[in-house]
Amino acid sequence: MYFDPAVSLAGLLVGFVIGLTGMGGGALMTPVLVLVFGVQPLAAVSSDLVASLVMKPFGSAVHMRRRTVDWGLVRWLALGAVPSAFAGVLVIRLLGRGTDVQHLVTVSLGVALLIAAVAMVARLLLDSAGARREAPEGPVAVRRLPTVLTGILGGLLVGMTSTGSGTVIIVCLTLIYPLLPLRRLVGTDLVQAVPLVGAAALGHLLFGDFQLGLTTSLLVGAIPGVLLGARLSSRAPDLLVRPALVFVLTGTALKLLGASTPTLGLTLLLLALVGLPAWALFDAGRQARSGWASAGVDRGRMLALQAVGLLLGLGPVVAAVYFARVRPRLRAAAEVRPPLAALEPVS
Fold first, then answer.
1. Could you give the 3-state DSSP secondary structure of residue 167?
2. What is the pLDDT of residue 340?
3. CA-CA distance, 62 to 147, in Å (whole number)?
4. Considering the chain, what is the average pLDDT of its residues?
5. Range of the domain at 282
6. How far apart (Å, rounded) are the C-alpha atoms in residues 163 and 158?
7. DSSP state of 288
């Protein structure tokens, strides 16, 4: 049986990022297999999906034990996702196995990565909008049509590209259910991904280009990587890691879509010099003034420093300092601040 230690090392690194951020592995592992190891796109998608099917239950089991899964949402998501994931595989199958289908998978993967990058930015902006009001514990009132449509969209993306279950679906759920606590959003997304990926993996086992040796090589590295990343996830500056992932996903997508080297370089340069600093400035401006005072940070000085850094080309450095050092202090101050109801005098 074919075994590649280099693929296992790549699986270890990607698995670590998955455990650290909770991001789906298809958006990272499949492009690595295609661009770094020269694996045919269809084989990369097929093997990555089967590997994901083995890894998904690890995170799902944790959330089921913690009772942070909304089973009503899982059922309606699966109603749309399971058949559409299998249908995505059939679409590829109907187009054959030649150069044309490999090109289709490559282009579809590039588009899916761009969608994933936009979804991650959307989630970051939603997180920056301030504290979320949360619904009471218990089952949420399911909005059936948008939930099923979300499952259909995610299923098609996963079936054709292995990408979308950990990025696109959770952003859609955040928009549809803005009051659902984040822990239940994540738990529900992880659990619904098991039947989704299972349907896509079955389709690729039957009609795709599954390679046992490639999948085994992935799993040997990815499983310990996921476990290690999960252990360190609480200590990682998540709001610094995710923008870096958006940067990587955008560059990878453009490469898969055939962008020239100058175009790719200019896009990534603008993203680094303008995109990240602008988002950091937006995020800082949305933080409550009381939080700045509680954290002992001068709000006006920090905003001015970010604006000047953006104009002088030093924005990425200032943004990294903000996300790694300042924002955690603001979040910590917000968590210890007593609720307004507790400050109101009793009549």
1. coil
2. 43
3. 24
4. 80
5. 263-336
6. 5
7. -
> Which residue did the predictor score with more confidence, 260 or 134?
260
Structure tokens at 275: 């995109």
Place of tokens 């789906």: 24
Q: How far is the C-alpha of 18 from the C-alpha of 241, rounded, in Å?
A: 11
Q: Work out how many domains the chain is built from and give that number.
A: 2
Both 87 and 42 in one domain: the answer is yes
Q: What are the pLDDT digits (tens) for 309-321?
A: 888 888 888 888 8
Cα dihedral 63, 188, 156, 144, rounded to 10, equals 160
Q: Does any domain span residue 341? A: no
Q: By the 8 A CB rule, do 337 and 294 touch? A: yes
* Position 12, amino acid: L
**pLDDT tens digits along 281-298:** 888 888 878 888 888 888
In a domain, 345, yes or no: no
Give the Cα separation of 10 and 27 in Å (integer): 13
Considering the domain boundaries, does residue 181 fall inside one? Answer: yes
Q: What is the pLDDT of residue 239?
A: 58
Taking the model in full, what pTM does it have?
0.71
**96, 183: one domain:** yes
Q: Helix (H, G, I), strand (E, B), or coil: what is residue 145? A: helix
- Burial of 122 per CB tally in 10 Å (0-12, 13-18, 19+): middle
342, part of any domain: no
What type of residue sits at position 177? Y
Mean pLDDT of 236-260: 74
What residue has token string 């998904």? 56
Residues 177 and 79 in one domain: yes
CA pair distance 55, 194, nearest whole angstrom? 9
